[in-house]
From TrEMBL:
Signal peptide: none annotated. GO terms for cellular component: cytoplasm. Its EC number is 2.8.2.-. It comes from Vicugna pacos. It comes from the Eukaryota. Its main location: cytoplasm. It catalyses: 4-ethylphenol + 3'-phosphoadenylyl sulfate = 4-ethylphenyl sulfate + adenosine 3',5'-bisphosphate + H(+). GO terms for biological process: sulfation. Residues 46-296 form the Sulfotransferase domain. InterPro entries: P-loop_NTPase (IPR027417), Sulfotransferase_dom (IPR000863). It is found in: Cytoplasm. This is Sulfotransferase. The gene is SULT1C3. Keywords: Cytoplasm, Transferase.
Length: 304
């Protein structure tokens, strides 16, 4: 489908926000829940690499890093297509606007790099059976909440977030797509010692991208020369990526993603939550957070 056809379609349909439905207590779009049997039965391969994260936790950033590593820093190869076509989003579909991630993945030759926002218990079991490698990226809850709120405002393929005050409560209750942030980060954390999972933190990646990219290189059993490593660091920096039309989603019409409301790549800096949370909201959030994360050894930094 051409961009012009997409624009016409969106004007006709007004790009309605998606209906939602739960699968196993996890909120999904109705299109995902209707397609759940196919998603659950997706056939992973032993040489697949899966990039997993809660929404707005650095998924696209990690996808670009991985693509540059796999292509030895060749910018032309990394510009071959949009992120969502290079690395299929396995559970996502919005026909005819966006192709089914499952269909893209099933047609793709090995080795494949795939993406998911699914919580660990909802991951298709073939990934465990085939022992596929998984990179999981986690970001602190407050910045995740702020970023998700703005993303939901600008992206008509997401449910309407409502007001800021409403969204804070919705997020805390886990009544957002892909479910509770708390359960998501803890579930994947608990799985990391039983499977081939590299668990990364967004804040660490911002603090020292070279160190974290070297972790990815080691996990992928790949070496690159120092000049290529520096090239990857530069071209996956926030300021460069936000200008990259193959990664910043500006190729989609504004009737789907309205970057005038909020750009897809908005701030990218830990601690932005301070610009949105009131003192009272922060105190209530901290109390709720302490309760939900009690007993977990998982810790996050809310600024660097």
């Amino acid at each position: 489908m051409s961009l012009e056809e997409m624009k016409d379609l969106c004007v006709d349909e007004k790009c309605l926000r998606p209906e939602t439905s739960e699968v196993g207590g996890i909120l999904m779009t109705k299109l995902m829940s209707d397609n759940w049997d196919k998603i659950w039965n997706f056939q992973a391969r032993p040489d697949d690499l899966l990039i997993a994260a809660y929404v707005k936790s650095g998924t696209t950033w990690t996808q670009e890093i991985v693509d540059m590593i796999q292509n030895d820093g060749d910018l032309q190869k990394c510009q071959r297509a949009n992120t969502f076509n290079r690395q299929p989003f396995i559970e996502w579909t919005r026909p005819p606007l966006i192709k089914s991630g499952l269909d893209l993945a099933n047609k793709m030759p090995s080795p494949r790099t795939l993406k998911t926002h699914l919580p660990v218990q909802m991951l298709p079991p073939s990934f465990w059976k085939e022992n596929s490698k998984i990179i999981y990226v986690a970001r602190n809850a407050k910045d995740c909440l702020v970023s998700s709120y703005h993303f939901s405002r600008m992206n008509k393929l997401m449910p309407d977030p409502g007001s800021w005050e409403e969204y804070v409560e919705t997020f805390k209750a886990g009544k957002v797509l892909w479910g509770s942030w708390y359960n998501h980060v803890k579930g994947w954390w608990d799985a990391k010692d039983q499977h081939r999972i590299l668990y990364l933190f967004y804040e660490d990646m911002k603090e020292d991208p070279k160190r974290e990219i070297q972790k990815i290189l080691k996990f992928l059993e790949k070496d690159v020369p120092e000049d290529i490593l520096n090239k990857i660091i530069h071209h996956t920096s926030f300021d460069v990526m936000r200008q990259n039309p193959m990664a910043n989603y500006t190729g989609l019409p504004s009737s789907i993603m309205d970057h005038s409301i909020s750009p897809f790549m908005r701030r990218g800096m830990p601690g932005d939550w301070k610009n949105y949370f009131t003192v009272a909201q922060n105190e209530a959030f901290e109390a709720d957070y302490a309760q939900k994360m009690a007993g977990s050894r998982l810790t996050f930094r809310t600024e660097i």
